[in-house]
Amino acid sequence: MTTFSGLVDELLADSFRLDPLEATNAGVHDHDARWPDWTRRGAEERLDAANAWTARLEALDADARDGTAGVEASLTAEEAIDRDRLLLTMTDRRYEARSGDDTWDPMTWIYRLGDGLFTLLARDFAPPADRLASFAGRLEGIPGVVGAAKERLGSTDVPVSRFHTDVGLRNIAGIEDLIAEGLALAGAHAAEPGVTALEDRVAAAAVTARAALADFRDHLRRVVLPAAEGEGRLGQDRFAERLVHTFSDPTMTPERVLAAAESQYDVVRAEMVRLARDLWSSWCAGQPEPSDDESAVRGVLAAVSQDHPPAADLLQACRDELVRIEAFCRARNVIGLADEPLEIQWTPRFLRNFAGAMLHSPGPFDHGQKAFFSITPPGEDWPQDRVESMLREHNRRQLALLTIHEAVPGHYLEGVYTNRAPSIVRSVYRDGTFAEGWAVYVTQVMLDRGYAGDDGALWLAHWKYYLRAIVNAMIDVRIHTREMTHDEAIDLMTRGAFQEEAEARGKYDRARLSSTQLSTYFIGSKGMWDLEAAARRRAAIASGDPRGAAAVPTPAVVGGYGETPGFDGRSHLESVIGQGNLPLPLLRRALLG
Predict the structure, then answer these.
(1) Among residues 299, 340, 313, which one has the least CA distance to residue 460?
(2) Strands lying side by side in the sheet with 357-360
(3) Helices 396-406 and 456-481, interaxial angle, to 10°?
């Protein structure tokens, strides 16, 4: 008799065979020397596998009941959620095959190459000789990856994006950085017997890989770029379809995202005005208070932003803040902490166009390996005024919020809990909306629990941070479906959301590079607040509160919630991330039935 867990093991083995990068990221290292087959033939094989697994998973309940498939028993409630999570994964794979991003977006290939090399170097999951052997295998396979890229780019009716091609040409240098890191790793361990035998192979593979990258750069510049007619906007239909898959919700539409964001925009701005008026005398002492609200907010934010570390000290500032955050969590019993290793580092070059900061968690099978909290430094060729603009955005209060978001109790802690989840399905297949929604939501939870103390400036920075999530969603929809211009987007971010111009310029580029991803922060956090409201109502009813569900108001982010009879904040937070990383509709089902 095949158990459901046995079926999952079979599916994972098949999936890891077809996608060695997925295996490496999950912490399964049997395929580390290989790349996926990204040619048309390989894409068809993965699509056939997704269709076959969909059929098996959809038939599972009926087969389990009548015994026709030899399944041991009908699914438990938890197994049914896992089955539905796997079905969503297969649906996403069919969508990816249909959308064909690798035919119009050269950055897809840069991310693939970087992903395939970075994890082998970054984590010491095996002795250096083993990792270097796999690294050499992947370097030797780069000509095949480049060949697939040349075959795929421009092969459909969707025009190649000129913007994505320009960015790709700049970011090939990041892949070359990783090759140099691999050579440095080999040099650092050259005296070890296993590495000594590999030195010549790694060196020769590096020559092969660099030649292939030079060929790719030349192909992008001479063949792809002259014919590239797109500018990185999906348009209404393609964006709407992608949105459904991003949120695993067939009811999600661009109009719904935009309406939700616009409904909070004025509310949060009004709270910022109230705080700025209260803070003016202490932060702008001796200056006449402006009559218009926007100038008042901007004046206080400008004063707060002057308190920033120099660029070289950004990492240490976040390390120091993390110590304070964890001490607060212990003292206030906010949430259980973890001791899995976390390293705060500069963002790898191949990812620097994607975000100003990010968190890379190890996979569930890579026990005890590091997570990386990465911060993107100022560009090496930036003029001083742009560097200073970026540092003002990374002022000390903003860095405190960033460390909560990316590390504790944000992405790092959520990643640890996800890896500890009893379901391997929920640990391997992660959901971006869950992750970003949790990090935005729990940042305010920390302030609601008192992390700001009496620091009104930290609250003001928080609402600016939350307003950024709202505006992220607005520009995401408007750029891709409403032809929002560069100047309109910059104006909304700088004047409407009080952002520095350097950040706004980067975010406009990111919106075109990562369609629908920028909406996950706001929509995901809204889903987390909805879950908390439901949990509070349930607790109030269970406690016998005579007001019952009416004891908890409709979720309103500004102000959070007060006390609710029977509601345990720490237990709720741990139950949310303890379920594993689930799309919000399945998370709600797991928590509330």
Answers:
(1) 299
(2) 342-346, 371-375, 357-360
(3) 70
pLDDT tens readout for residues 310-348: 999 999 999 999 999 999 999 999 999 999 999 999 988
Read off the pLDDT of residues 429-474 as tens digits, 9 standing for 90 and up. 999 999 999 999 999 999 999 998 889 999 999 999 999 999 999 9
Amino acid type, 333: N
Assign 161 to helix, strand or coil. Answer: strand
Cβ 536 vs Cβ 575: under 8 Å: no
Helix (H) or strand (E) holding 397: helix 396-406
Identify each DSSP E strand in 328-436 by its residue range.
Answer: 342-346, 357-360, 371-375
Structural tokens at position 416: 């640890």
DSSP 496: I
The residue type found at 428 is: V
CA nearest 297: which of 524, 92, 519, 463? Answer: 463
Q: Which residue type is seen at 439? A: A
Q: What's the token pair of residue 247?
A: 């949120």
**Distance (Å, whole) CA 583 – CA 587:** 6
DSSP letters, 258-285, are HHHHHHHHHHHHHHHHHHHHHHHHHHST
Could you give the count of Cα atoms lying within 13 Å of 116 in the half-sphere of its Cβ?
30
Read off φ and ψ for residue 471, nearest 5 degrees: -70, -30
CA distance 529 to 535: 10
